[in-house]
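User: Hi! I'm working on a homework problem where we have to compare a predicted structure to a textbook description. Could you give me the structure for the chain below?
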Amino acid sequence: MKEYFTCITIHDIIDEPSAGTFIMRGEKVPIEIIRSYASEAKAILSMEFWKELMNSIRYEAAKVMYEKSLSYDDVRGGKFMLYTIELINKKLLRISSKYDILGKTENEEKIVKMYKDREVKK
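Assistant: Happy to help. Predicted structure tokens:
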């Protein structure tokens, strides 16, 4: 999609330029934070509500593209919606499967809390 339009890709959200190095919103993110996000991503992907929400969005996007569209822009809008949810799901799947590890140490929990508190203050 990026080769046709100016849009974000899976690498723009949380990039991993090298093993164990993560960049999000232009800043390096500690591995402990990524591990925390991984367990949250796994929880999101296992929720029935999340699955139903994604299916509903796909259904409505298809309806816009194939039943309600009056112009190519309507079709393009539906395709962008499908692309966006695909992007979100791919990132959730990638992070949850690659970085989720059980048994975080107490130090990791402190780092995660400190990082999230810093984000709230911004």
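For your comparison, note the following. The mean pLDDT is 79. The CA atoms of residues 49 and 92 lie 15 Å apart. Good luck with the assignment!
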